[in-house]
Model the fold of this input.
Amino acid sequence: MTYISNDVMNEIRNKTDIVDVISKYITLTKRGKNYFGVCPFHDDHSPSMSVSPEKQIYTCFSCGASGNVFTFVADFEKISFAQAVRLLGEKVGISVGGISNFSEKKDEYFEIYELANKFYQNSLFTNLGKNAIEYLKKRNIDKETIKKFGIGLSIQKVSLTDYLKNKKYDIDKLINIGITNDQGNDIFINRIMFPIYDLSGNPVAFSGRIYNTKDTSKYVNTKETDKFKKGKLLYNYHIAKEHLKKNDSIIIMEGQMDVIRASTVGINNCIATMGTALTKDHKNIIKNMTNNIVLCFDGDEAGEKATVNAIELLEDTNIDIKVVRLPNNMDPDEYILKEGKDSFFAQIKNAINLIDYKMELLKKNKDFGNIKDVSSYINSVLKELINEKDDITIELNLKKLSDNFNIDYKTIKNKYNNLVKNKKEIKREIKPKKTYDKYRMAENYLIYYMIRDEKVLNMVENKVGYFPTKNIRELSNEIIYYFHKYGIINIADFISYISDRAEILKAFQDIIAMDIKDEFQIQEIEDYIFVINDYHKEMRINNLNKKLKEEKDPLKQAEISMEIMKIRGGSRNGIRD
Ligand SMILES: [Zn+2]
Done:
């Protein structure tokens, strides 16, 4: 079991600002005294997550995710709470790594890939690497770029497998993670090596390119492993992320060479899908990076398909999508080499708005001399326009349709309005909210206010017999204990304190995520306490009512009824159910 002292955790948390940390992962906007952003823990389309600098907690009003800076990092990075504490501790110069049982060994996978990466990089700068360097030079890849992207070389004469075996790594492990083939030889031979990094910047795979031979496959990639899944990674993510503040827009490309080439002309906010279609995991990663993207896939037909797929996937997010379609089937790498830096900058700067791109796409295979085609085109465009948020864009496009096809503007506008109305009616379903019965509700309110006010805490301690729900009972005990120990309840610190008790933590997170006012009247608190204390009485009455229904003997029925009345008589009148 991991043990980090509460004092150490509190110290790290005190030196860390939750707004700073969270804004490294998602874009936050200040509204009032809190910050808001798109929640990374559910498929959020509008900012549902609030971050309170004052309380140092975050809360999603949609999915209920909530917690302190440690739980955010742990959930986002998919690491343990303790790992998150260590990670944030390192950033403020507080080491918790020395605590035994805590600093676990770095995964061997990362260790091996790091060694392999260094091995390939060194090989490139030996005598045997001269041809490869020449080749890269010819392709305008200079030493700086080589260093920046960790480009290396695999050489037949120097075996990576032997090197790693000498370091006592198990051959089965090397085969398993895609370094070595089943015959015990290197997978990559005589290729220029491009390391592929995971989202945290660890090398987890390679892409090897031929440079002096003819081979059927220009590129060979490491097979998919548990740490290298193309659908979950984006090439250059860890670097592009660092460049985001300045540009706040991400350019999505297909291949790693496109990204590297763009960097040689000073464009660093690019990521690549490495030839796969964009996935839902990619979508979540991108959503958390930025609200502005430029899709700049290859200029060929496959690139157009990829563009359309990406749009379909990303359309229901808040992301503003722009599209670049490069001419003559060129990919960004070729385009920059042939047309130069300025021309590529212009392409990015003049990227087409999503709606304009779609209107162009919809024109495909349509004969505008044909009335049917015209009508179907207009309908499809209107259907796209009802999803557009910008009024001016909508207005301009309605006018454009009216002008281009010589149709009365009012007709077009009416048609558009009808579509909007239909859409709203379909959307008018309300998401079911978490509902609690009155006891659970009273419990939640009491917990909510007892962490905010000492008076309530004392009332609960003295007046509540015990909470009906086990988690809440334990939570309340912990709160009371914590208060007596520290003399104050700091919500963010309390979350750390209960972090190793998953069920209680969950109950607590649900309660702080409740959308209720911070002020209260003592009478309300009295009512909640009454409801809780009434619980056992109600339970007994319920049981007796059940018995009553099953009882056939009228005499016994009367007895039970009497008993119920007796219990009821003891209860206060006028309490709302
Ligand atoms: Zn959420």
Summary: The pocket of zinc ion is lined by residues 39, 41-42, 44, 48-49, 60, 62-63, 65 (CB under 6 Å). Confidence is low (pLDDT under 50) at residues 98-104, 571-577. Residues 365-427 form one domain.
